[in-house]
Amino acid sequence: MSYTTILRGGRLGAAVGLCGLLACSDGSSPSATAAHPAGSGGAAGSSGGAAGSTGGQPGVAGLSGVSGAGAGGSATSEADGSPPTAPDDTEDARADSARDAGAPLDASGDVAVRSGCAGAAFALCEDFESGPLDAKVWKLTQQKGTVTLDPSRGARGSKTSVHIHVDPGSDTTVGLVEAKTFPALAKGLFARAFIYIPGATATSLFTGDRHSRLIYAQGATPYGEYALGIWNGGLIQNHYSKTDDSVDTKMLPPFDQWFCLEYQLDSAAGNVRAFLNGAEITALRHDGWPPSNIDTLMFGVDRYGSFPVAEDVWFDDLAVDSARIGCDR
Asked: What domains, with CATH codes, occur in the chain?
């Protein structure tokens, strides 16, 4: 499996109008993050469902807090055009809403209704429920797209998530970037995100030579990048430094519902793992890519290829830590 690679490592994503979202107390505008090349090559992954439960593998490291009233946060779901509904603050109503939306269940078979960050001791945890985005934690990159807080959609019964909107076209980077957990996590980390992708545009977005990275780590000493995303009709892990490599599947995540995506990176050894709703995707396991120390981590969409339609993805309950996080915390 291979596709054409374009080196984009020197490109910077422009941060546009960030102080509407971020609490810029000093009047400064947060910096943007560097973009990068798309992955190619690599062994063809097996198709089919996610295999195997992982248990508690030893891991790698962490991050901390955010939320804010973003301009452009729509009260109507862009996925289905449904009218906004008044929020119901009762725990039972929130649980029912989350269950109907396909939220992952906890060990008791019920939906976890509390925020994933309430009482959490992760190195970084962001549930978008408590106010403006903290500019000391998050920098926005909005190249050909926008990052806004959406009070109409949340994972696991919460109210608010971050809405990543990407314009049609190619070579775009739109998302939330953190460097707070580095250099502590330069040699490895675990990252967790709840993600919602509307199914209406899936055929246009996730077929052919189109690559959307969802969790993206980058470092400069030595230069390298690692990413977990979707390419050519399936989930993919890719790495770029001295070579451009990938491992992929023909398995897509579920659409029109929240799913839990976990990413394990041992950047000192060049080892990666991926988990969907708690189960390891064994086809995306790879060891021995050239090592690189990581200094930034992005949650969002970094896109390579020709995309004929806009892309809308929602992220919630982001967590980073030195050990496996899981989907029920």
From this structure: 58-77+87-321 (2.60.120.200)
Chain segment 189-205, per-residue pLDDT in tens: 999 999 999 999 888 88
- R_g of the chain computed on alpha carbons: 18
Rounded alpha-carbon distances, angstroms, from residue 194 to 115, 225, 247: 12, 22, 22
* Cβ atoms of 174 and 299 closer than 8 Å: no
Query: What pLDDT score was predicted for residue 114?
Result: 52
> What is the rounded distance in angstroms from the CA atom of residue 185 to the CA atom of residue 60?
7
List residues bridging with 261 in a β-sheet: 193, 276
Tokens representing residue 133 in the block: 């985005």
pTM recorded for the entire structure: 0.69
Q: Which residues contact 44 (CB under 8 A, 6 or more apart)?
A: 1, 248
Residue-averaged pLDDT of the chain: 74
Strand partners, 211: 231, 304
Instruction: Using the predicted structure, report yes or no on whether residue 51 has a pLDDT greater than 70.
Output: no
- Residues 189 and 60: beta-carbon distance below 8 Å: yes
CA 161, CA 317: separation in Å to the nearest integer? 8
CB contact at 8 A, 111 and 155: no
Angle CA 24–25–27, to nearest 5: 65
User: Hunting for tokens 């955010």 — which residue is that?
Assistant: 66
Q: Which structure tokens are listed for 321? A: 């830590």
